[in-house]
Amino acid sequence: MKYRIHIFLIILIFITISCSKTETINGVTMNNLYPLKTGKVFYYRLDSTVLANFNQNLVVHSYNAKDSVESEFKDNEGRKSFRIYRYLRDTLNTKSWTYTATYVATFDLNHVEYIDNNLRFVVLTNLPKETTIWKGTQYINTISPSPFSYYYNWNFQYQNVGQPFNVRKGIIQDTYTVFQQDETLPNISFNSNNYQERSLSKEVYANGIGLIYKEFLRWVYQPPTAINKYYQEGSYGIKLSLIDYK
């Protein structure tokens, strides 16, 4: 009887250790998921969702995007940071690249911050495993009447840890999805006679590569009887899918 209990305990310890190794995925950290350095370039297909027809519709315009890591510097807290320039051109590559935006990625001991349009997000944190949850929008002013109140209390979480993910470049192995938000209010099928708002946001990072996919969609629909008819100003979306990197 004691022998059987001993064997059971050994098996239990082995299973516990195996599960722990699975959660940490061989020691992968946020630095492995976003290995930035000066001169690194990412190419994406960018689908931009914008208002059209006097805000009655949402339409998608597509571009090729180039994110170029222009320089490394220390922020005012002495943290390692990278300045990233984004350029756009048509999907057929018939025109020259046009500068459109600057982003900043900052590495702290336990998380990565990303500044986009003066909004500071905590996009990654240690350790990358399914149970890790953090406040990704904690530095954004969401107090009404802030136009960004919809970011209130977003919980970011790793999902599909170590799984393959399909992008324009093809299937990339060992990826980590950062779920950010998926909410529809009220949560019913869309009806043009009803008020509704939609928030969808997630990113996917690949071990040893960086950001390979991003999807964001935010819109507010006002029915025709409201003062602000159709889609509210500020409704937009963006989708990035990695084409290549170097």
Task: Characterize the structure shown.
- Helices cover 11% and strands 53% of the residues.
- The model is unreliable at 1-24 (pLDDT under 50).
- Strands 1, 2, 3, 4, 5, 6, 7, 8, 9, 10, 11, 12 and 13 form a 13-stranded antiparallel sheet that branches.
- The chain has one domain.
- It is globular and about 55 Å long.
- The protein has 2 helices and 13 strands.
- It has helices spanning 2-24, 30-33; strands spanning 41-52, 57-74, 80-89, 98-107, 111-116, 119-125, 133-135, 155-167, 170-185, 196-206, 210-222, 230-231, 236-245.
- By secondary structure, it is mostly beta strands.
SS field, number of helical segments: 2
SSE sequence, one letter per element: HHEEEEEEEEEEEEE
Poorly predicted runs of 5 or more residues: 1-24
Mean pLDDT: 90
Largest sheet: 13 strands, antiparallel
Number of strands: 13
N→C terminal distance: 61 Å
Radius of gyration: 21 Å
Proportion of residues in β-strands: over 45%
Taken from the alpha-carbon principal axes, the silhouette is: globular
User: What is the structural class?
Assistant: mainly beta
The share of residues in helices is 10-25%
User: Can you tell me the number of structural domains?
Assistant: 1
